[in-house]
From TrEMBL:
GO CC terms in record: cytosol
Record carries keyword Chaperone: no
Annotated organism of origin: Kushneria phosphatilytica
Span of the signal peptide: none
Keyword list, A-Z: DNA-binding, Transcription, Transcription regulation
NCBIfam families, sorted: PRK11161.1
PANTHER family (UniProt xref): CRP FAMILY TRANSCRIPTIONAL REGULATORY PROTEIN, FUMARATE AND NITRATE REDUCTION REGULATORY PROTEIN
Protein's name in the database: Fumarate/nitrate reduction transcriptional regulator Fnr
A Pfam family the protein falls into: cNMP_binding
């Protein structure tokens, strides 16, 4: 069984023209000449190691970031020090939109594995977007996708059972892995079960118990972090309707 990984080869010499994820990222909207100019403003940062922090809660906002490989989680802390994992970001997705409103990031972005990032200065991005309507539209689509993720999480936490939350989480990951060119049925979880339980508002023991029930019912096969979705339609129906 071939498992989709969020961590392909990470090259410091990568360019937008040759990036396999350009169809997901902002450069999809640009013509050749515009793409060269866009490529010139991007900073390819050294790879983040597992646990490294891309930005911290309260940091000044100046960039958005595109994930070339690897994955990030965003963690927010309230005034009482309670931790909530609000987002998981996969290859081809943009990170950092939370800072646009008041100029400060609202959470910590941590690498869950070796992760390669393209840093895009937001002031340059705004200037280009004013000149290139297609880029502006792609930027809005990226923002809209993140808003949909927020709404999905609110719906999961407010009105779904543990089984429905975890089924929805697995299906959502499958769709996003497929979007970035991987299999929608076999993939490797970049996050721990503790991360999943925090994100979904469940006890760790509940997550383990539900995953075991999914295995026993032959909905999924799971070994460590390797996931194979055996019956995607039934899992989707469970996520949406509460029963397959």
């Amino acid at each position: 069984m071939t498992i989709a990984s969020a961590t392909p080869y990470c090259s410091h010499g990568a360019h937008c023209q040759t990036c396999s994820l350009s169809s997901l990222c902002l450069p999809v909207a640009l013509k050749t000449g515009e793409l060269d100019h866009f490529d010139a403003i991007i900073k390819r940062r050294p790879p983040l190691a597992t646990g490294d922090c891309l930005f911290r809660q309260g940091d000044h906002f100046s960039n958005v970031y595109a994930i070339r490989s690897g994955s990030l989680k965003q963690v927010n802390f309230d005034h009482a020090g309670n931790e909530q994992i609000t987002h998981f970001f996969l290859p081809g997705e943009l990170v950092g939109f939370d800072g646009i409103d008041d100029g400060y990031h609202t959470g910590y972005a941590h690498a869950m594995e070796k992760t390669c990032i393209c840093e895009i200065p937001f002031s340059h991005l705004e200037t280009l977007a004013e000149r290139i309507p297609q880029l502006r539209s792609q930027l809005f689509r990226s923002m809209s996708r993140e808003m949909k993720e927020d709404h999905r999480l609110i719906r999961l936490l407010s009105c779904k059972t543990a089984d429905e939350r975890i089924a929805g989480f697995l299906i959502n990951l499958a769709v996003r892995f497929q979007r970035c060119g991987h299999s929608s049925k076999t993939y490797r979880l970049p996050m721990t079960r503790t991360d999943i339980s925090n994100h979904l508002g469940l006890a760790l023991e509940t997550v383990s118990r539900v995953l075991k029930r999914f295995r026993d019912n032959h909905l999924v096969a799971i070994r460590g972090r390797d996931v194979q979705i055996l019956q995607p339609q039934l899992l989707y129906e469970l996520a949406e309707n509460g029963s397959p």
